[in-house]
User: Fold this.
Amino acid sequence: MTPSDVKATLSFSDGSPSMDLPLYKGSIGPDVIDIRKLYAQTGKFTYDPGFLSTASCNSTITYIDGDKGELLYRGYPIEQLAVNCDYLETCYLLLYGELPNESQKADFEDKVMHHTMVNEQMQFFLRGFRRDAHPMAVMTGLVGALSSFYHDSTDINNPEHREISAIRLIAKMPTLVAMAYKYTIGQPYIYPQNNLSYAGNFMRMMFATPCEDYKPNDVLVRAMDRIFTLHADHEQNASTSTVRLCGSSGTNPFAAIAAGVACLWGPAHGGANEACLNMLTDIQKQGGVARIGEFVSKVKDKNSGVKLMGFGHRVYKNYDPRAKLMRETCHEVLGELGLQNDPLFALAMELEKIALEDEYFVARKLYPNVDFYSGIVQRAIGIPVPLFTAIFALARTVGWIAQLNEMIGDPEYKIGRPRQLFVGATPRDVKPIAQR
Ligand code: CMC
Assistant:
C-alpha cells in the first residue's frame, strides 16, 4: 500500500477533538482511508452494513471497475484471457501472479490432472444424502468432508500445505460436482480421465456412461472452459469474503472453501443463474415474449417482490464484461447444437433489449450480469438447472483459494472480527419466571 500525501480529517460537531486519518493509494481504483486506529483514538466505530464503502483487505489478484465494466485478473482484461488462455492457465495466473510459459503450463496441468481422483470413501459419504438433495447441499458437505481425508495439507501456516490443498481443491471439484450429479440420476460415477483437458474431463464425468464411448464436443468443451474462466474470481464478493473471514480463524482450507460454497448458494449471489433460468422458463410458460411487458411492470412494482434475475450488480454499474463474453458463447453453443431458434434465448434477448431501454433500469444502472446468459449456455450443454451453482462453485474455487492464500501470506492479517452498533435492551434484571 502506498501512503498518500493527502490526509482525511474527521471532525465532530460536539467539539470532540478531530482526527487525521491516513490515506493509501492502490495501483488503480479508489484510495482508502485507514480507520484502523479510529476506535482506539475516538472510542467510535464506523457503520457500513453490506460493506458499501469498506475495503476489507488489500489484494493483488482481481480488479473491477464497475463504472467502466472492466474486470482484470492480475492486470489482464478478462476479454483477453477468455480468448487467449484456457481455465488452467487462468488458475495458474490467479494462484501465482503470472501467466505460465509452456513448460510451467504443462507442469501445472500435469499436477492438477493427477489429483483429480477422490478417496473411494467419498462415495459412501455421498450415499448418506437423499437422491433429490440440492447439489449445493451436497457440495457444501463434500467439500467440508475433504478436510477429513487430507490431514497432510491442513496446516495453513505451511506454504507447501497451502499449495497442495489448492491443487487438490481445483483438481477434485469437477469430480465432486459430477459425482453429485450422477448420484442424483442414479448412474454410476465416471472416474476422471487425466489425458483429457480439465473441461473435457469434467464433461466426460458428467455425461459418459460405462456402456458407451464418449467423445467431448470441442465447441461445448470450449464453452465450459469459458464458463470456468469467467467465474474464476471476482475480488471481495460475498463468498470470497466468507472464505477470507472463515479462513482468518486459522481453519483448514477445505473448511474455508466449504463456507464459500454455502455462501455462493444464495439467489443474490451464485444462485442467480438458476433463478434466472427459472424466471425465463416461467415467462415462457406464461406466453413468452408477449408477456415481457407485464413481467417488467411487476419487476418495477416494489410491492411485488419480483426482481429481474441476471440483472444488476453491486459493483458493475455498466454492462458486466463477462455477460458480453457469455452472450457470444451462447451464440456459438446454440449454433453448434442447431438451437439458434431456442425460444428461451430469443426471450432473453428481447427481455434484455426492453430492460436496457426502460427508464427504471437505466436510472438505476441495472445491466445484465454474467448469469443472464450462463444458464442458457449450461442448459443447452445438457446441465440440469439445479447444478448451475455447483458449476459456479467449481470455477470459483481457484479464486477462493488464491484469495485465502493471499490473506494468510499477508503479515498484517488478523482474525476478522467486525463490531456492531448495539440497539437492543440496556442492562436489566432477570425476573423469576412467575413474574414474567
Ligand atoms: N431487478 C429489479 N430491481 C433491481 C434489481 C433487479 N435485478 N437489482 C437491483 N434493483 C433495484 C433495487 O430495487 C434498488 O431500487 P431502489 O433504489 O428503487 O430501491 C436499486 O435497483 C439498487 O439495488 P440494490 O439492491 O441497492 O443493489 P445491490 O447492490 O444491493 O444489489 C444485487 C445487487 C446483485 C444483489 C441485485 O442487483 C440483485 O438482486 N440482482 C438479481 C440477482 C442477480 O442477478 N445476482 C447475480 C449477481 S452476478 C453473479 C455474482 O457475482 O454473484
In short: The chain has 18 helices and six strands. The longest strand covers residues 2-10.
